[in-house]
Write a structure and sequence with these properties.
Blueprint (H helix, E strand, L loop, with lengths): L1 H11 L20 H13 L12 H17 L7 E5 L2 H14 L8 E5 L5 H9 L2 E5 L9 H9 L5 E7 L11 H10 L3 E5 L7 H6 L16 E5 L11 E5 L2 H4 L4 E3 L7 E3 L9 H36 L5 E3 L7 E6 L5 H10 L5 E3 L8 E5 L8 H18 L6 H9 L7 H11 L16 H9 L2 H15 L7
Parallel strand pairs: 2-3, 2-4, 4-5, 5-6
Antiparallel strand pairs: 1-7, 6-7, 8-9, 10-11, 11-13, 12-13
Helix pairs in contact: 2-10, 3-10, 4-5, 6-7, 10-12, 11-12, 11-15
């Protein structure tokens, strides 16, 4: 047993750090050791519990209802509102789309209208549930275009089952004009979902602290559902999210039951049946421990860090904000003297993980930051590393993709990408095979990201699916 734990620790040493405030993507760190400890202990205590049957594990139902109640108070929900704990933001989004579709069984070709900046989870929902995703371009401020959204809805209002808004959008940190979007949806009897997975637990406190936050909660008439993640800025262990509905009737299509077999009657509130009670217990323990005053303090700290980074970026040549952030997410662009992908590599070399984002439409590649409270005490160090990284990226110059490789990519059909095509791109990108069918990731990813960036979105998807397929191969012990 001790050998397995030792190997586990050795494997984990290869991962990004989840604590310490130096990983500005994927993880959300409060910087409080006691919060982390309480969450982990609760997860361990409930790791064997099963949320499939609330009558068998009533403590899980009690914790879920209390978490939902806390969130509904935070988000200005009416007394009629209800909610469900899910495994994460993607499941919350999937269920919001599924419920909107199933609430309109008479619609044979359902569609939803969403800004181009909406999270990719909506595209996953469209793929899974046969709901057409109608994308609307955003304005120069990266916020949803209300007039364009209205026009898109009115192309087929009888088939439109959902209008989507973000609070904020992940890529750019911008809150959509929810008041206007919800109003146009309500006027046509269409649901409006606000994806607040990343902002839902900090924006209410931002408003309380006097920051300028556009209205987006259930206080906005026409908002029918909201998703908010607990494992983001509620600083709970992975993975818990909430899907909240204004009324039980709006949630009802989300619930599933089946007695069409000889076993127990299946009854589920989420996509999962069996589900560990650990994440739910961890989230409950953290929220109970931190409480409303604690979250206000953590929000004050994270926004102080955001403001300091925003101010510091203005002093770094060749780097600027794409748009002024309205929450805890920042997108940075470079000038022609360097590129975002190399800046990300240079930051990694200095012990900081920041996320590269590919170009999309007219928006160039960006350096994406998800700021946590734990980053606050390291802002000076972070800005120094960022300035050094930009200078190093300038010294090496923008990464370029061989024109022949660009031509090769442009000639490929993403719907018919063969193993030979993929092998050729692996060789061109430096992802050298490590054994039969294997891959070897380079230490620096700028050239790989630049190669992906020149590919059209459909080809980018095909390449990454092929890449994931190659990565996910069994390790045999026979």
């Amino acid at each position: 047993m001790s050998d397995a734990l030792e190997r586990l620790r050795a494997l984990q040493a290869q991962d990004l750090p989840v604590l310490g405030g130096r990983t500005l993507a994927y993880v959300y760190d409060s910087g409080r050791a006691d919060v982390d400890s309480i969450g982990r202990e609760a997860v361990a205590a409930y790791a064997g519990s099963n949320g499939l049957d609330p009558t068998a594990f009533p403590s899980l139902l009690q914790m879920e209802n209390e978490l939902v109640g806390f969130a509904l108070d935070l988000l200005d929900a009416p007394a009629t509102a209800v909610g469900t704990v899910t495994s994460g933001g993607t499941e919350s989004v999937l269920l919001a789309v599924q419920a909107a579709r199933d609430a309109r069984p008479e619609v044979t070709a359902p569609r939803m209208v969403l800004p181009a900046t909406a999270h990719a989870a909506f595209h996953k929902a469209a793929h899974y549930f046969g709901v057409e995703a109608v994308l609307v371009p955003v304005g120069s401020d990266c916020a949803a275009d209300v007039a364009a959204t209205e026009a898109a809805v009115d192309e087929a209002p009888e088939r439109t089952v959902l209008v989507v808004a973000s609070a904020p959008s992940y890529a750019h940190g911008v809150v959509d004009p929810v008041t206007e979007l919800a109003a146009l949806a309500a006027a046509r009897g269409i649901r409006c979902h606000v994806d607040a997975c990343i902002g839902g637990w900090v924006l209410p406190y931002a408003a309380r602290l006097g920051r300028d936050v556009p209205p987006w909660t259930f206080a906005v008439e026409g908002v029918t559902s909201v998703s908010v993640d607990l494992h983001k800025y509620a600083y709970a262990p992975k993975g818990t999210s909430l899907l909240l509905h204004r009324t039980p009737a709006l949630r009802r299509p989300q619930l599933f039951a089946s007695a069409a077999w000889p076993g127990y009657t299946m009854l589920n509130s989420t996509m999962q049946s069996t589900k560990s009670g650990g994440p739910l217990a961890g989230a409950w323990a953290v929220v109970e421990s931190v409480g409303d005053p604690g979250y206000e303090l953590l929000s004050r700290e994270v926004f102080a860090a955001v403001d300091a980074i925003v101010a510091g970026v203005t002093d770094i040549d060749a780097l600027e904000l794409l748009v002024r952030p309205q929450s805890t997410l920042l997108a940075l662009v470079t000038d022609d003297s360097c590129d975002a992908f190399t800046v990300c590599d240079e930051m990694a070399a200095r012990g900081w993980y920041v996320q590269p984002q590919m170009s999309y439409g007219e928006v160039p590649p960006t350096v994406h930051l998800s700021v946590s409270a734990a980053t606050g005490e390291h802002v000076t160090e972070f800005l120094a590393a960022l300035a050094e990284s930009v200078r190093a990226a300038q010294a090496s110059g923008p990464v370029a993709v061989d024109p022949e490789v660009v031509a090769f990519i442009e000639a490929l059909d993403p719907a018919a990408l063969s193993d030979d095509d993929f092998d050729g791109l692996l060789a061109a990108s430096g992802l050298v095979g490590a054994g039969e069918g294997g891959l070897e990731l380079p230490e620096r990813m700028a050239e790989v990201n630049a190669l992906l960036d020149v590919a059209a979105p459909a080809m980018r998807e095909a390449l990454l699916v092929a890449f994931l397929d190659r990565l996910s191969r069994p390790v045999r012990r026979g």
